[in-house]
Amino acid sequence: MRIKTLTIKAFGKFKDETIELKPGLNLIYGTNEAGKTTVQTFIQGMFFGFYKPYRKKKTYSEEYEKYMPWAQFDYSGSLVYEVDGREIRLERNFLRAKDSLFIYDNTTGKIINDQFKYDGVIRQHLPLGNLGMTSVIYNNTVNMRQTVHDNESGTQDEVRDSYIEMQNSSGIEINFKGIVRRLEEKKNNIGRSGQSKSRIGAAIRERDELQQLLNEAEAAYAKVAENQEKITWNQKKMKRIEAENEYLSQESVVKRKKELLQSYEKINKLEKENNRLSKIIREDQIYEGYNYKTLEGLKAISNQANRLSDQMDYIEKEMADASEHLKAIRQKEASKRSSLAGHTLENITEDYETYKKEQDEVAAVDKKSNIVINIISTLVALLGMGLVGLANMGLMGTSQGIENLSLTVGVTLAIVGVVGLSFGISATLKKRKILKEKQLIPIQEEILAKYQLQDGPSFDSYYKKVVRNQKELEQMQNEGELIIVQHSRHQAGYEVLFEQRRGIMRELDRKLAEYEVKNIAEYAERCEKGQQLEELKIRFNGNLRLLENLLETVNGGKTDDGQSVWQKASPKSEELLSLGKEIARLEGENSALTDGIGLPVEIQETIKSLDAQIQAFDTEIKACNAALEILTRIQKDSHLESAPELNKNIGDILETITQHYKGVKIDEAMKLKVVDPTGGDFKEADQLSAGTMDQVHFAFRYGIGELISHEIPFILDEPFVRYDKQRKTQALKLLSELSSKRQVILFTCDDEEEKLIKSLGAPYHKIIL
Amino acid sequence: MLTTFVHTGDFHLGRPFTFLQQGNYYGKNKRKELWKAFDEMIAYVKEEEVPLLLIAGDLFDSVNVLSMDIKRAAEGLAGLDKTWVVIITGNHDYHGDSSPYKKVEWSSNVYIFKEDVFRSVYIKELNTEIYGMSWVKNEYRAFPERSFNSVKLDDTRYNILMVHGEVTNQSLYLPIDLKLIEKKGFDYIALGHIHKPGLTPGGAAYCGSPLPLNFGETGERGFLISQVTTDYENRTFITSSGFNPIESRKYETIEIQIAPEDSYHEIIQKAISCDTEINRQYNYYRIRFTGYLNPEIQMDWITDDLEESFYYIETDTSKLEPDIDLELLIHENKNNPIGQLLSELGKIEEPEVRKKAIIYSIEAMISEGVLK
Q1: B322 min Cα distance to partner chain A (Å)
Q2: Which of A47, A398, A463, A716 is the least buried, fewest Cβ under 10 Å from its Cβ?
Q3: What is the domain class of B4-245 according to CATH?
Q4: pLDDT attached to residue B249
């Protein structure tokens, strides 16, 4: 490719200026401020315009403003170049909002814009787009602008840019150390959590501290709220009490209160008494149910038993008497029999009758009456005993009175009977004594001798006596039999009474057991206690009714104890005081709780702000981390080796120019190094002189240029200002060699270049601005 | 006889606010403004001798609101000696165990509904019966329909219903079926919970919050005033309601279009010229930058740099794209690690992280000279 004509219509200081360029080496000469850089920028602008690369919106670059003509109405030009045997004319208007590019086939004059790549952002076709040339590549390779930096590092940056471009262009991997470093720096500026000096670290720390404070503040204010609730409650209570006190202090209320107090005193007394009573009642409850009626019944039963005992005692005595009597009779009988001296009545009677044949006087004694008396007496006694038996067995079954009566009558009759009988018997005995006197005859004498008697009368009397004796014996026998009969009857009566008594006693015992007492006396005792209990109850209930009535009048029926009701009715200054104290205490506690403690809402708000900040930082950190992570991943895969051939080529160029340094290298940290042949080591670029750096730069540009297709012109603006003569000669020699293959445009203000080129004998085309 | 009444609510007194910087400073001021609005409302009611004031829930922002705030509110209402105040509680200040309403003593002119079924209070001198339901927990998925259905209105009275909830089918915040409640024949339905004020033809009204509480809340805020007249002929009441705005700092969300050629200075100028100096120093601003930004410009400190020109400013650069043709860059570098890096960066899922990662990487590459 070759640039033929530059027509600067309005650009920078130029107006309607035309520059013709030739193939090969073009030496554009101009003094300071003649516009060399302007022309160079014009070429760049004609090809690319002045737009920032990789933008989504059309953005003008700095050059736009810089080369804006003073008049500002027109900002345009045209450029004719030849490529692949075709002449193309570019007509560009730089002016903002009117910016445009027309591409003409300079032979046919036709607009051929649509044959070129189109950029949607700047809305223009790209004349070099088809060649893969962008403004970035252009500036990093073929367009070597004047070194703006007057120091080594600036040059080094340019060299590095070129180097990267070289690597990009050649598809060689580059390393990302620098990018990584920049990102790390960025990240460190944001800071990480835990690093106290960083912004985010400080924010996180502050947030965490505040969170702690918030917890404390919330706890404190929760307690304050709780206290406040209590305070309000106490205040309400105080108000109520105050109102009550006010009421209670009124005169009528005071008067009524005095009455009440009296009532309460009564109430108190009553309550005390009732307390005592109720205790006793509770204790004496066991005596309930013991009564006098039952006691009477029990007593009657007991009496009955006693009466039976009496009767039994009597019968016992009677029986004992009868036994004594019988014993006496038996003794008498024995003595009577012994008085017969072994004679029997029959013998004696025979003897006597014999004796008496002559004597027949017999005095008879009526015994019938005595016998009748005896019979009647016996009957009476039997009837009496029968009545006693009936009464005792309760067979008469009517009233106890009749029973008792019949018992008495029976006993009396029995006694009368027995007495009568005795009387009868004794009368009979008396009458027998009358028979005593009698007379004797001879036979009779014998008989008398037999009986040791003197005379008949004595025999008479003896006989009489014997008869009487006999009679008496018989009588005694009868009497004894009667007594035995009587005794057995007594025995039977006794047994009946005994049985009856036993039944009664059993009944009594059963009843006593039922009433849980040992005896009637105990029952009687309990009866008395029971009676007392009833009386206590009546008293208690009476008290209770009184108490209820009193309470009803003084306290609406409530059964509080008088003391508490009285206290209620008294103005409560103490309670007021204690409530007041409690409120003061709570308020004091509240102010202590909140002293030096921030408001939770405000702390929350600060935390929210910090959270927002932390969130933003966090996003920034995440972004850095994500980029770094990706970089590390890519770095692993990438080969850090530079292209050896290219390096060698550049090294050769550098050696040609400097006649000293042999090779260049850019290390991982993007530091430029050159091979120093004296030591054989790499030498850091910043140890090199500015001139040498420029030469390294030149070597790079020169070397890269060879990689650019279509031999796009190599444009250099004052590249040799810091070269010595020898190195400049070598460089110009290289350029002159290059110009045979591609167009070279060299801007300079120094005529030394021209002289050197002339001395090298190389062809060139000179243009003076 | 009721002549006029005020319907307000959703004061959210004692609320903590969210501000992206100096949260406690702006929060404190905002809370002051809430109190100013409350005091203004009270002053209005007092001055006009409005006989009835309805507070439809969320008077306080939380059950944990400071005791001094509750006291202050109670004192304010206690000063309304010619006004009946009827309060229901809302989802924020529900009358539960730690109810703010338990913490202070309320004056006798204040009636607070304390159950979550419909109860009523009849104010004889106003011939007005107010039915209300309060929140006693912080969630109601259903409207207490049974309780509502058992309400029998006395037509000779002016009947008001107070509910704090959302007019919608499904909600955790007491869904309200507007048709159901309007059918009942209330003369006025005082609703709370929704912060945007609004009236329905059926006589239901949201009083709205007296102040906007965040950037989402725009438009005029204040409280509602209703006038009641009696149509003796038809034996009905006629209610006409109006809105009384309360002046306060507004929340302004402003979009600013950025162009790639805009310098940082120009961007700042654009942001500052969004409103007048007076407004800027009064309202809350959220400036949302859109468009394409010169990738060499760092927006990290934009909020700090705008701070002095505004009372409150927060910026949102999430809609701002760096002016880089990433695809082109990737395309032109498809054979080298730059392209590889950029295309990997493009795969980051979180958009904000992705954008920043790309910007930082490009920035680093430009600094390193890898890119121009």
Answers
A1: 8
A2: A398
A3: alpha beta
A4: 92
